[in-house]
TrEMBL record:
Domain GST C-terminal: 90-221
Cellular component GO terms held in the UniProt record: cytoplasm
Protein name, as recorded: glutathione transferase
EC numbers: 2.5.1.18
CDD domains cross-referenced by the UniProt entry: GST_C_Phi (cd03187)
GO BP terms, alphabetized: glutathione metabolic process; response to herbicide
Protein species of origin: Asparagus officinalis (Garden asparagus)
InterPro entries: Glutathione-S-Trfase_C-like (IPR010987), Glutathione-S-Trfase_C_sf (IPR036282), Glutathione_S-Trfase (IPR040079), Glutathione_S-Trfase_N (IPR004045), GST_C (IPR004046), GST_Phi_C (IPR034347), Thioredoxin-like_sf (IPR036249)
Amino acid sequence: MSIKVFGLPASTDVSRVLTCLFEKEVEFQLIRIDTYKKDHKVPEFLRLQDPSGQVTLKDGKLTFVDSREICRHICENYPNQGNKTIFGTGGLERASIEQWLQSEARNFDPPSSALVFHLAFAGPLGIAPDEAQIQQNEKKLARVLDVYNRKLDESRYLAGDEFTLADLSHLPNSHYLVSRSERGHDLFYKRKNVARWWDEISSRESWKQVVHMQSEHPGPLEKFAMID
């Protein structure tokens, strides 16, 4: 098996990559590396290329360390496997998907990542949540979700009427916000179209498999219970 993924399913970057691999029905080997353990030794190429150790993928002789680039690589190099429309079937579709991927990385990820930490994990880790940071990032994320809500009134998914990488990339942070924080949950479910979209993308078998892997082999933060 040529594809190896290094990391923990609990990591948002790792879970993004795993979901893409499941969507594309590409076989892979997951090598669980807990970088939270200071005495854990990782392969030299990992230490040199990805100091954080959040996610690394090796496909033959190629090594990738950015989860979104990994997803692009998977879709481009295994076009005829699994979900064949996940990265678009033409130039215009691909361009639209890329626009939403960039929006997720630049506009959605920063406030949602901050909220995941402060709302979902700070308290259980014994760290006092920063209310000022929470409110600031809630406002930022709310503005992003308002844009999404309007777009999702026009189409089933962000880049059109097919599930694509544009939607998939939102799954990891959204999952922690919706399932582990009432305030995060409300940000999504107070917006009708966003709530419908989230229910649909989080019900995909590819994502269910990742959530199962998270619960079956928890990472250092996974011991904290999810809210209903």
